[in-house]
Every structure is written in C-alpha cells, then in structure tokens.
From TrEMBL:
It comes from the Eukaryota. Subunit e, of the mitochondrial membrane ATP synthase complex (F(1)F(0) ATP synthase or Complex V) that produces ATP from ADP in the presence of a proton gradient across the membrane which is generated by electron transport complexes of the respiratory chain. ATP synthase complex consist of a soluble F(1) head domain - the catalytic core - and a membrane F(1) domain - the membrane proton channel. These two domains are linked by a central stalk rotating inside the F(1) region and a stationary peripheral stalk. GO terms for cellular component: mitochondrial inner membrane; proton-transporting ATP synthase complex. This is ATP synthase F(0) complex subunit e, mitochondrial.
Amino acid sequence: MSSSPVLNVVRYSALVGGIGYGILHRRTLQAKEDVKAAHAEYKHKEHLIQKAKEAYKNRLVAKQSNTGIVTDPENPAFDLEKFLTKLEQESQ
C-alpha cells in the first residue's frame, strides 16, 4: 500500500510546520530568559553597590569616632574649618 502524494505533502508540511513552531517558541523562551538574567545581574550589581556604600559609611564613622571630627559633608554637623584643620595636621 503506497501512500498518495497528497498525504505525503500533508505529512511533510506538518513536520516542517512543527519544526518552525519549535524554533519560534524556543526563541521567545530564550528572549524571556535573557531578560530575566539581565535583571538578575542588575539586581546583583545594585546589591554590591549598596554593600560598598555601607562599608564606606562605616569607614567614615570609624574615622569620625577616633578624631571626633565629622568628615561626611552630607552630615548636618559637618564643620569645614575643623575638617581642613585636621587635614592640615595630618599632612605635616
């Protein structure tokens, strides 16, 4: 029993259509995963920056507690004259 040419065309058309759908579907899934990976990488970098800021702030607080002079210009208790005097004494 040989299959008719029409049946072969339908079979191969379905096969090619399925392969095409698979390729398209994989591309969309990969694009979503790429976006998720980029977002996760950004969050990781953001976390590292936050940790670095906290470490820097702790370092400033440690320096501040030793000398009693506020070295953070954002702090309302910052006194430029005392800070410059301290820097001048350290450089000598």
